[in-house]
């Protein structure tokens, strides 16, 4: 196992009716900015519950944070924060709202000239406004981690800082019942791929991390399709299991002490940046190709994945790996997401631009061994055609 330091101080309030917990989390004299997206929280009653829980606190609002939050939108919140002396941010939404709020939390107190430097130059932030989260879409794990992804002019780039980790997050599975099938599928697949990025690498004998990861993968495989099936899609236990899995997939626990890959995500970000494809749908296209192209480097873990996650025990090693890859693709298809570039109308003529962008963004040494060069990324995209 590798050395690690693990500290995740986000307090989680999980379950039915927990939105009222924000009343005890946010100081009574706080000036709160409630941040949200395109309005789903207004039509499904989440907004009303949040406002009721905030009681007599001074409350301001900033809405319109779009999927794959854009810098241009996010900076429009800064004058509201400044003019009203806002001192607490409450993000109510999915990963995009939470990520956008993380950027705003750092940008509001940034001492440099241009807040874009937080991302473009990876300039460390020294302080940030405190963040609380009411999560409405289980997928990203952003509600209790330190990362965020922001887009500007087709460039989708990550940053991270422990200062933007949410102080608390409310996870009420009931609020996920209004998600479209598309968003349910996306969420399950994103959480699945987060787990794979921290599991499907090379063996360092991190037995517990491996078994946690396998538990999350199996739970998503079992529960994901049920959340789409007419008979079971309203079942709150299924939603709860998916929601907790998604948080645990990227809250730092399963990745502690083990190598991490993230090549699928970095290549996927270019597909979103250049072609506006939903985040999870880029991952379901890229991951199977990564498994095929990195078959030798990941051999031992691919076999473990085949045997322990999919119970594939018959046949030669090659057959087991083939079967595990095709079962992964079947699972993605069951969740309604694409598994080839051709499924999203992209072809070989788009690869040059994607590789150029990847290179421009410094993504030239990807993977758990930092040996995925742009040439290998091209091979991965060619395999995904
Ligand atoms: O904007 P509204 O109207 O709220 O609608 C949203 C949005 O259109 C809707 N939605 C959310 N909750 C709903 C709902 N609709 C009905 N009922 C509800 N309860 O869903 C749509 C998608 O929302 P979005 O927040 O974009 O989805 P997701 O949670 O998948 O977040 C994706 C973003 O997170 C980033 C991605 O790159 C992408 O920008 N990621 C962040 C990570 C992190 N911080 O650790 C890791 C991930 O790998 C990922 O990169
Ligand atoms: Zn992701």
Plain-language structure description:
It is a single chain. This protein is an alpha/beta fold. It has 2 domains: 164 residues, Rossmann fold (3-Layer(aba) Sandwich); 203 residues, Dehydroquinate synthase-like - alpha domain (Dehydroquinate synthase-like, alpha domain), CATH 1.20.1090.10. It is 45% helix and 11% strand. A 6-stranded parallel beta sheet has the order 1-8-5-4-2-3, sandwiched between helices. Strands 6-7 form a two-stranded antiparallel sheet. Helix 8 packs parallel to helix 12, helix 11 crosses helix 15 and helix 13 packs across helix 14. It starts with 10 loop residues before the first strand and ends with a helix. The structure holds 5,6-dihydroxy-NADP (NZQ) and zinc ion. 5,6-dihydroxy-NADP binds next to helix 2, helix 6, strand 6 and helix 8.
